[in-house]
Specification:
single chain; 27% helix; 5-stranded antiparallel beta sheet; 2 helices
């Protein structure tokens, strides 16, 4: 599980015709209390963007949530790096 946490999933969506250049990052981070958080960061490429953290009691639940978010990004036209 912690090996999975070391990997961040990186996505980007670039469309020059629409002046769109976005990034999206999904990471798993262990907490001090034995839980696992899914950390999402997104925004325009070149900017700091925004970040949101959602905490789950088990690592498996967090991994499933991260996979669901990754699928949603792919459906919306993002490309995984």
């Amino acid at each position: 599980m912690l090996n999975d946490a070391a990997k961040s999933l990186l996505f980007h969506h670039v469309d020059p015709e629409r002046n769109m250049a976005r990034f999206y990052v999904l990471s798993l981070m262990p907490t001090l209390f034995g839980e696992t958080s899914v950390v999402r960061a997104w925004g325009r490429i070149g900017s700091r963007g925004q970040e949101k953290m959602e905490t789950f009691e088990s690592g498996d639940t967090a991994a499933r949530a991260r996979a669901a978010l990754a699928r949603r990004r792919l459906q919306r036209g993002y490309t995984q790096l």
